[in-house]
Amino acid sequence: MPSPCTANVTPVFGSPRPSELLKVDLLDVAETIANLTEHDVSDPIVKLTMKIDSRGLLSAVNAVASGEQKNASLTGKFMGLFGGSKDKTDGDAQGEISEQDEAEAEKAADEEDAKPKDKKMALRFTEHAIGVKPLSSESKKASKRRLAKIKQVEAEVLEREEARNVLEGFLYRLQRVLDGSDTKALQIHGSDEEKKKLTEGLSSAFAWLAEHADTADAASLKKVRTDLE
Length: 229
What we know:
By secondary structure, the protein is of the alpha+beta class.
C-alpha cells in the first residue's frame, strides 16, 4: 500500500510564534493523480479545505484532486448531419448551403473542444491532533464535574450577595422607623419596651453584619433578618 501524503497544518493568525495544530494524512494521492492523467487532465492539483468552528477547533473538511480536462473531439458527431456528405442533386445553391453548414458545425465543435473542463476526484484522509489534544471520555466527565461545581459556587455567591443586600436594606429601613424619619407609627403606638428591644436588636445586627458581612453564608444572613422581623 502506498504511503499517505502528510500535511502539517500551521495557522498563523497574526501570531509571531505559530505552532502546528493538526496533521492530515491524504490517502491514495498517487493513484488518484494517475487516474486523472489517464483522463487527459493536465497538471492536476490537490486542495485541502480546513475550517475553524465557534470553539476555535481546527478540522479538515474535504480533500480534492482536480485539473482541466479537454473534451473528446465532437467534430465527428456533427459530420454527416448536414449536406456535406449528401449528393448535390438539388443544384449549386443547395451544395453551397451544405458546405456552409458543415463548416459552421466543425467550427462549433472545435470551439467546444477548446473549452477546458474541470474534473475532480475526492481523496480520503485521516486527522491527528498535534496541538490541543481531544479530551478523552474521562477528561470530559471531569470537566463537566468542574463546570457544575463552578456553577454551584457562582449561584451560592449570588444568593449570599442578594441576602446581604436585603438584610442591609432592612436594617436601614428599621433604623428610619425607630428615629421616626419614615413614619411616626412606632413613636405613637409603640411602648418604651418595644422601642428598647428593637433598638438593641438593630444595634446587635449592625455589629454582626460589620464583622461577618464578607464571610457569612446566605442562610445566616437571612436568619438575622428573620429574628428582627
